[in-house]
Design brief:
It is a single chain. The mean pLDDT is 86. This protein starts with a strand and ends in a 7-residue tail after the last strand. By secondary structure, it is mostly beta strands. The protein is 0% helix and 46% strand. Strands 3-4-5-6 form a four-stranded antiparallel beta sheet, with no helix packed on it. Strands 7-8-9-10 form a four-stranded antiparallel beta sheet, with no helix packed on it.
Length: 181
Amino acid sequence: LLLMDLIGGTPRPFLGEGANIPAWSPDGTRLVYVYKPNRDDPMLIADRTGANAHQILPPGVLKNNNPVWSPDGQWIYFVRGSEPQDEMNMNVWRLRPSGGSPEQLTNQHAAVNFLAPLDTRTLLYVARAEDWSGPWLWALNPDTRIIRRISSGLEVYSSIDADADRRRLVATISKPTANLA
């Protein structure tokens, strides 16, 4: 990974080889990332400069991906499951920035990806349904673990993300069509 000033300049190394999928904390003082040198997938937190990294989730059998911070900085949400990721075997988990035992929040047995926390009660994500339809847009209340599909119609969601103040969402949507020519 490389870091470059917004006004330009020479990119410089940041986080080192094997660091993957970094996400800044809401206050910009820390970042979380997954370290994938040998596909072991431990999760680390570093300061805003990328220094002083420490492991908060050790490597294991399950793969960890796409960490994002809760808006209040109290949790790190991430996708976790077994390989291959294209299978219906990924779920949403959360972990305190201080580490500890991760908590599984969904049990959809679905291909889950792209997490976008809106507030402390709403986490959006993209996942296939158990019947392999979709992927659709879903909303999860992390405390009650209530999940509901919030997309309808023929659109298929590929990704979702929120801006820093969580007032705007950006999604990749496709609308498949069929033609009987």
